[in-house]
Each structure stands twice: as structure tokens, then as C-alpha cells.
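As a warm-up, study this chain.
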Amino acid sequence: MKRKAFSLGYTVRRLMAITCVVGLAPGDAPLFALQTQPSSSPAAEESVRLPPEQIDSLVAPIALYPDPLLSQTLVASTYPLEIIQLQQWLDKNKDLKDQALADAVKKQNWDPSVQALALLPDVAKRLSENIKWTTDLGNAFLAQQNDVMDAVQRMRKKAQDTGNLKSSEQQKVETKVIESKPTIIIEQANPQVVYVPSYNPTVVYGAPAYPYPPVYYPPPGYYAAGMAISFGVGMMMGAAWGGGWGYGCGWGGNNNVYINNNNNFVKNSNVNRQNVNRQNVSNRGGTSNWQHNPQHRGGAPYGDRNTARQFGGTTRGDTLANRQADARRNQAERGDRDRAGNNDRRAGTGRPEQAALRDQGGSSGRQQGGGAGARDAGNPGSGDRVGNRSVSNGGGSRNSSAFGGGGGFSGSGARASSSRGSSSMGSRGSRGGGGRRR
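Now compare it with the structure written out below.
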């Protein structure tokens, strides 16, 4: 009996000791079992799809832009860091005008969609001073391009139904049936002159289902009597553009945004930096479907895991394990593409343009590969050239918290923001945009 009592007491004391040890363990230890359980909805963690009402509000400030300007703005919004760099550069080069401005900005290592914004200072200022909205808009466009273009059409229909969207001396508005669907087209009245419209979304569309972005809009007294939309001073496209606008809206189907390969800015970029990721092999009369170029993302995080994985980047708050896994996956995929291209060359099979695209894609992937792979492996010397470039303090520095959590965009601050790739995106809306009343 004594032996049994001793055994029972010993067992109880051991259980109590184990309980105390568990209680004193680090706070994360009791959660280990929970962390090892599979997620109940992994798809929800991989992709965050915005509802139509939220996308409507995101596009509201630009939905009434002429189609070429709309597409250019959407493309540029996918490169938020370069937009801030552009605004800082413009603040330092206020004496440059017209052709001299176009020639100077072409020398900057930015995506052509951002370079061309130098000739549209009102648009560049609005995007840079409201970088949180710009980043959210760009992320939505990358993840849900078709939904974004559909939202533009919904907002145009609202403005048209309220009588606030119609043709004028600055723009031509017409409705066409494209693939059995009514589509509202907005074009410049004069192809050589662009007017940037300014309007208050609440006035032209009505009350929002989802709050409109906190972008500054001119007060009611700014507009001419009976007008809900005002236009700034017309900007001459001139010889600097060459071959028309660089981007356009291919309404219908997947609502593709296309690029004009004859545009001076696009040609300049293709010749000097060979950014092959931006183009498809197919070329229709000097145009091709636009594709995002992650080399110009500059380390800014993407909106969801699927988009980040597609372009070899990171998301907000991404873990080191996820970044390393994506780096290994991207490296394996690049190796597969390189091997496939080598096999085609040795066998002499396949269409030449397909083999060329694979070769270029592999090379471009290696150039950007440092972006995810080298940074994740702790090799800062292999980061991409955009993210590791020093950025001076300037007009856009007050919005730098969107990338660096409050740090400025000079020197190591920009480099740290790029190499981490997971900094929080947040910014307050700033007053900007709007042109003079006509």
C-alpha cells in the first residue's frame, strides 16, 4: 500500500512539474500545435480580391481621364517608388521645359510609363502626394486588371447618367458596343493636346458605397457655373512623345492595356535597357499587350501572395520563410526556362520567337532574381538596381512612410526599404492635383 501511495504521489508531482515548465515556457511554445495545423482556408491567404464597390472607389479619381491617360496612369501606379523619385526629380529640375524636359527624363532609369509622367505634372503630383492610394490602385490593377477596367466603365456610366460626362472642347465622349457590351470611350478632342480633368467624385458620381480615396479635390467654387468637371491647361504632346501615346485601353475580352512600341519613351526604354518583360512576342501594328516589369518595382511589396509570387516579390509583413521559399521556386522556374530554351536551340525545333522570348525571360529573371533570391539569402549586394539606388530627400519625402515606416527616402533608408521588401504601406492623403479653371 505504501508503495502504491508513493507511486501515485510521485506521478502527481511529476505532472505538476511538467505543468509548471510548460507555463514558464516562452509565449509562442503553447501555440506550436496551432501553428502546425493546416490552414482552414489557404486560398484566402494567397489572394485577397477586392469587392467591386471598393474597386469603384479606387478608380473614381481617374475613371474620367481620356483612355490614353487612364491607361498610362494605371500602368505607372504599379511602380510607386519610381513615382516618388520622379516627383523629387521634377522638384529639382523646374527649369526644364518641353523637349529639354523629355530628353532629360529619358536618361533616368525609370519605367517609360513613369518617365512620360514628367510631361504631365498634375498627374505626377497627384500620384506622388497620395502614395497610399496610388499603391493600392496599382496593386488592384496587377491582381484584378479586368475588374479594374470594368469598374472604370461603371463609374463612367454613373457620371454619364447624372449628366456630368459629355463631349466638350477638351474631350470626345461616345458609347460603342464592343463584344456585345456598351463601352464608354473618352478621347482627346485634339489628339495632340491633353487636358487633365479635375472633379469631385461625390459630385460627378454621387454618394459612394465605399469611401472615396482621401485625395484633395478642388472646392465647389473652383468650377465654372453648371460644370462638374474642370480642365487644366492643355499640354502639348509634341515631338517628345512621337508615334502617339505609349499606352491605350483595349476594351473588351480581358480589357487588355496595350503599349505603343512606336512611342518615343517606350522605344528609348527598349533600346537602352531591353526591358523584355514588358512586351509579348505578338505585335499588332506596333502595339503589344502590356506586362508589369518587376525590375522597376523597387522592392515595394505587392498586395497579395499570388501577385508577389508571380513577379518574384514580397507582400506586406511577409515572413522570411515565405520569401526564401519563393526565391527557391523562382530559381527553379528560371532553370526550367533556360533548359527548355537550350533544348530548342540544340534540336532546332520550335518557333524562333518563342525560343528568343524564353532566353530573354530567363536573362531578365536572373537580373531581377537578386530582388527576391539574393535579398532573402542575406546578400544585400545582389539586390535589384532600382531598390538599392539612393533617393534624395525632396518634395515626396513626407509620404515616405508608405514604404519605410516613417524613414526618409535618402541613402540607406531607401536601400533598407527595398531589401526588406516587406515594409508597411501607409500614408496620409495630401493636398494636390487639379488644374486651373477654364
